[in-house]
Amino acid sequence: MGKILDGKALANLLGENLKEKVKNLKAEGITPHFCVINIGDDTASKIYVRSKKRKAEKLGIIQDIYQMPADTKQQEVLDLIDKLNTDPEINGLMVQMPTPEQISADELLARIDPNKDVDSLTPANVGRLWLKDHFVEPATAEGIMALLKHYEIPLNGKNVVIIGRSNIVGKPLAALMLEKNATITIAHSKTQNLASLTKRADVIVSATGEPCLIKADMVKDGVIVVDVGINRVNGKLVGDVDFDAVKEKASYITPVPGGVGPLTVQFLMEAVVNLTRRQNGRK
Ligand code: NAD
């Protein structure tokens, strides 16, 4: 039976270190301050925004929420981003996804100052990620890397199958894992015969939002499984992986909840603090 990769415990541990870092910055008169722009009424987004706010408060970071109505015009958001980009009090900002239909999220992301881009989604920072010259990384991908490192799971030469090709999870994770010399396959909704890929994988990362996509007969013995998916099934939170069955074959596996989720929030806050330090000439 697989060992649990306890993301919650690691997030708590790292949270203590970060709290100390924030305290030290404050002693120098610097308080990390970041802004979340949320457009519309998406229920999940509101929950995520609130959980970030709670975490920020615990750490001593200031988080402002700009809640904009669902019919907000593109220009209004661009104007807000311009204002936050040039405000010296603000160290970081992000736009909560998804955005309403009339909004071009790509244009918003491209407008954010890369130096304040806590999600690392601006074209400049995406480029830096693939050039191995990055100062900020997308939080979920960074959290997964930290989890594997914490449990001393090597990636050198390993066959990794990442399922999901989103800009926030699959693609940046592939870049970070390539840096660790893993051999990466990225699967997605048009991939044929997913099982033939997952059966060969030493490490599987699933980020699709499809409950029970990964079943026990799709994985080899000893596999390491990282489940990013967050799905609500009959009122219960589950991942993409058939956890009870797959854990019998896995050597390590993340639970949902308590796996990747807490690390995402933790590493978002790490990004805020790192950008703040960088803007103030700290390493
Ligand atoms: P997304 O919708 O942008 O991307 C989903 C990806 O999954 C796409 O690339 C799609 O091609 C692929 N996919 C969908 N169905 C598939 C299938 N049957 N077979 C193979 N590939 C398939 O989603 P996202 O924003 O990357 O999020 C993915 C999941 O991860 C969601 O459940 C989301 O809630 C969750 N998520 C969790 C965290 C966390 O911190 N735990 C962070 C981000 C996203």
Automatic annotation (TrEMBL):
Pathway: One-carbon metabolism; tetrahydrofolate interconversion. Residues 138-279 form the Tetrahydrofolate dehydrogenase/cyclohydrolase NAD(P)-binding domain. The keyword Oxidoreductase applies. Pfam families: THF_DHG_CYH (PF00763), THF_DHG_CYH_C (PF02882). NADP(+) binds at G164, R165, S166, I230. Signal peptide: none annotated. It catalyses: (6R)-5,10-methenyltetrahydrofolate + H2O = (6R)-10-formyltetrahydrofolate + H(+); (6R)-5,10-methylene-5,6,7,8-tetrahydrofolate + NADP(+) = (6R)-5,10-methenyltetrahydrofolate + NADPH. Its EC number is 1.5.1.5, 3.5.4.9. Homodimer. Belongs to the tetrahydrofolate dehydrogenase/cyclohydrolase family. Catalyzes the oxidation of 5,10-methylenetetrahydrofolate to 5,10-methenyltetrahydrofolate and then the hydrolysis of 5,10-methenyltetrahydrofolate to 10-formyltetrahydrofolate. This is Bifunctional protein FolD. It comes from Lactobacillus kitasatonis.
